[in-house]
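cron nightly-structures :: item 1 of 1
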Amino acid sequence: MKDLTGLPVGYLKVIRLVGKDKWGYNLWECKCVCGKITQVRSSSLLHQRTKSCGCKMGILQKDNPRSTTHGQAKIRNGKRLSSVYNSYNGAEQRCNNLKNIAYKDYGGRGIKFLFTSFEQFFAELGPRPEGKTVDRINNDGNYEPGNVRWATWEEQGYNKRFKGKGYYWEENSQRWRVKALYKGKYFYAGRHRNEKDAKNAAENLRAKLVEDGAQC
């Protein structure tokens, strides 16, 4: 294990190793230039994904070439939003908004959104890489520091909680996606606006695979 004591990372300076988080990752106590003490994973420090306690989020985002002024921006009700904020807001809505279409697969099954601010979320994850969305490392865990990452759909495929009938909510497309696995190969039956259509498509896909001699 590399000793990170004294290492400067952005607006942080590493003070000492404090132990491990509940997933076994090393945590380092760091002091931000604002005076706040925070705990950060080794990987987030070494890859400079976390550079402040959250207080310098605006500056870091401005300095980042993928900031809201360089292509990530989105206008909504006259406000400029970044793709990172869209991910933050989407995850929070899935956990806390009873009317959200995906609520029952998140908040409805006990998944909690435990970030207290967008600044904390950004400090944990950093800028959103091209082709990746927010993912929970432990798929039965909460959206919280230490259990989130940016991941591709392929990476998330190994971590996805499939519904019993072979369909799940896909954040990127905002649709229900139908997908079945047989002998290491994925079979798809499209994306659907409502869960009922996805369920029917999944049942039809299963029937077709069985008819063709496959089992899923």
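cron nightly-structures :: done
The two ends are 43 Å apart (CA to CA).
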